[in-house]
Amino acid sequence: MRQAYVIAGSEATGGAGIQVDLKTFQQLGVYGLGTITCIVSFDPKAGWAHRFVPIDPGVIADQFEAANAAFDLDTVKVGMLGTPATIDVVAGALASKAWRHVVVDPVLICKGQEPGAALDTDNALKAKILPLATVVTPNNFEAQTLAGMDLLRNVDDLAEAGRRILLQGPSAVVVKGGIDLPGPDAVDVLVQSVPGSEPSIEVFSVPKIGQERVSGAGCTFAAAITAHLALGASVHQAVAQAKEMVTAGIVARVSGHTPFDTVWQGV
């Protein structure tokens, strides 16, 4: 039985965060375990705005210690961290051992934080977590921010953003165009470093399923990549299979009383 580990926030409706990660791991046949970094709960009385509570860094370190004592973990997904203090403890924990794969879903601006605190978190993430990553999965906005680009309008822009992010340390970057990229297709671009040569570029494209955001798509995508890597897939194979899973999950999405639908991992 292979294991996949996740370090991420909790989201109470089950549509994002560590709840999605563990469901995705289970669906793909790996034993999932995780460390919670923060608690995000939507406020249905205030337009479903975010309420954000960080977990004490010492408690995060304790969770990391227990998980890594229980199993010989070598594949981890990093999701929402939320504060510079959390980033410090997670970066130190990750650097304390060797990993085969570190998949980073770079959640930047954390809704529910003051702008200044959010900027400090973004800068800490770029400085301390990205250099430890093997695969990074930014969405359109996150890729713009990490790459220092104003707008991503086409596949060439996605590829250029990926090349710029590669320079910050990871071995591979999957830039997700999503619904923000003009055109009828949902396009993701995988940019991988190639020793002694220019980075390789691969494009994954499927028709868009509507024009509305579906909660949990990014979490599911990164978690599926993590699970497939844990099972021995190549980065290319993991990305291709993750995109298939997310596409099917969006088609079969779950509706509730929230103003957004969520991906169904079980499809």
Description:
There is one protein chain. The protein has helices at 17-27, 57-70, 84-94, 115-128, 140-147, 155-166, 217-230, 235-251; strands at residues 3-11, 31-43, 49-54, 75-78, 101-104, 135-136, 172-176, 185-194, 197-207. With 267 residues, the protein is an alpha/beta fold. Strand 4, helix 3 and strand 5 (101-104) form a beta-alpha-beta unit. Helix 1 crosses helix 7 (217-230), helix 5 (140-147) packs across helix 6 and helix 7 packs antiparallel against helix 8. The longest helix has 17 residues, at 235-251. It is globular, with a radius of gyration of 17 Å.
Using brief descriptors, characterize the structure shown.
single chain, 267 residues, alpha/beta, UDP-N-acetylmuramoyl-L-alanine:D-glutamate ligase, globular
User: Treating each run of at least 4 consecutive H or I residues as one helix, how many helices?
Assistant: 8
Task: Estimate nothing, just give the exact number of structural domains.
Answer: 1
| Beta-strand content | 15-25%
Termini separation: 22 Å
The CATH class is identified as Alpha Beta
- Please describe the biggest sheet, giving its number of strands, its sense, and whether it closes into a barrel: 9 strands, mixed
Name the CATH superfamily classification.
Ribokinase
> What is the quaternary state of this protein?
single chain
Structural class: alpha/beta
Query: What is the annotated CATH architecture?
Result: 3-Layer(aba) Sandwich
Q: Which fold does the CATH topology refer to? A: UDP-N-acetylmuramoyl-L-alanine:D-glutamate ligase
